[in-house]
Specification:
8-stranded parallel barrel; globular; 331 residues; TIM Barrel; alpha/beta; 12 strands
Length: 331
């Protein structure tokens, strides 16, 4: 008996028939140029140190940094984001060490720029430097004082620019910090230093492993950053934040976290059409890695997650998996 098939002229499965054809019609592609590798440098560390909550991610002493930088360059990654783990004795309530021109991160930036052609992104925020673990200065009531924090953040940004950072990345979420930093950079002659603004940074529960990595979780304790980072319920507010930062002088904007906020990435890119980065944060990476290590998910899920960032509109992705993914892409 012959079965009568009544299909329209277009069979969508035709373009899925072989891997070659699937590749030809793919709407989005992930390349090594889309990846930025975060690096943790630790003061006083000899060699490397694993991070329990971030599988396959390490802290690096300055004496081990060159080898990691060489690996990143061999993988053809073009940029890194650097985060310091400073001596706890150097932390105070105002994050004073952040403006020291010979602090750990400045020393690391100079070393990286001397020995590589990588673009270096340096974080502007006080949480790695404060005894209380907040991104700004606290007032007498324990509230993060926006205007008291700004001069320190501006000074920190200048310190990083002097050290050779290609991009300063304010992640503190203080109002007015982009304009303040941009004005200072122009005044001091750093006209080509890029401001990568963490413009839509949510008060997320996905940051836990990162805070372990930079040793700020113990200082913050049960405290919250809800009064300055964005509510996870809002997207219109994110667009407002991004608009303000662009108008104040941001060159690139970032959405953080990433995977739970693909709708925000898409809205930002479609609305403003400016370079838009996204951060696959520590909690996202850690939960995927845990599932992979337990055999619940395959290794390919990491690639799939990053491709979803591209589909949403991200131009570049900060991910702890950058080296691993680059090695796969380069095969």
């Amino acid at each position: 008996m012959t079965v009568s098939r009544k299909f329209p002229n277009s069979r969508l499965r035709r373009t899925r028939f072989t891997s070659v054809i699937r590749s030809l019609v793919a709407e989005n592609h992930l390349t090594v140029d889309d990846l930025i590798q975060p690096i943790f440098v630790k003061e006083g560390l000899d060699g490397i140190e694993s991070i329990d909550s971030l599988p396959e991610v390490n802290r690096f002493g300055l004496n081990a940094l060159d080898d990691e930088v060489a690996r990143i360059q061999e993988n053809k990654i073009k940029a890194i984001a650097i985060f310091p783990v400073i001596d706890p004795l150097k932390k105070d309530d105002r994050g004073t060490e952040s403006t020291n021109e010979d602090n750990l991160v400045c020393e690391a930036i100079r070393q990286i720029k001397k020995n590589s052609e990588l673009a270096v992104i340096a974080d502007v925020a006080l949480d790695p430097y404060t005894s209380h673990g907040h991104d700004g200065v606290l007032d007498s009531n324990g509230y993060v004082d926006n205007d008291d924090s700004l001069p320190i953040l501006v000074s920190q940004a200048l310190t990083l620019a002097k050290a050779g950072a290609d991009m300063v990345a304010p992640s503190d979420m203080m109002d007015g910090r982009i304009a303040s930093i941009r004005n200072m950079l122009e005044e001091k002659g750093f006209v080509n230093t890029i401001i990568l603004s963490y413009a839509a940074k949510y008060s997320s529960k996905f940051y836990g492993p990162f805070r372990d990595a930079v040793s700020s979780s113990a200082s913050l304790g049960s405290g919250s950053k809800d009064t300055y980072q964005m509510s996870v319920a809002n997207i219109d507010e994110a667009l407002h934040e991004v608009k303000m930062d662009i108008e104040e002088g941001a060159d690139i904007v970032m959405v953080k976290p990433g995977l739970p906020y693909l709708d925000v990435i898409k809205s930002v890119k479609e609305t403003f059409k400016v370079p838009t980065f996204a951060y696959q944060v520590s909690g996202e990476y850690a939960m995927l890695k845990a599932a992979i290590q337990n055999g619940w998910l395959s290794e390919e899920v990491m690639m799939e997650s990053l491709l979803s960032f591209k589909r949403a509109g991200a131009d570049c992705i900060l991910t702890y998996a950058a080296n691993q993914i680059a090695e796969t892409l380069n095969k």
